[in-house]
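Handoff note, outgoing to incoming analyst
You'll be picking up this chain. Sequence as last confirmed:
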Amino acid sequence: QVQLVESGGGLVQAGGSLRLSCAASGRTYSIYSMGWFRQAPGKEREFVAAITWSSGSTNYADTMKGRFIIIRNNAKNTLYLQMNSLKPEDTAIYYCAARNGPAGRSTWAVSGYDYWGQGTQVTVSS
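Most recent structure output, in case you need it:
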């Protein structure tokens, strides 16, 4: 019922910045929160950041806090991840995710989300 499409990934030098976008379509009124996850080859999908759609309250993984900013544009049904001070260990496929209510489901676990985008590759060179 919700479709998500990521964009904005690419190759960047360490210390640089990227801005990822996620466009949501379909029954977007049902979305309670959205988040970003990332996954490197052979590794588990890792929580990056999440935002409650109505209130704008945010949560960040400790390693991203202070470097990454999650932003939503309610009118455009679009989610952003502003990535600053990028490090080689940030290299991964970044996925946009969305979930329906109610509150109480985990916002930091893959299992807490109902919809996923196709991913966008971020590569950070040293």
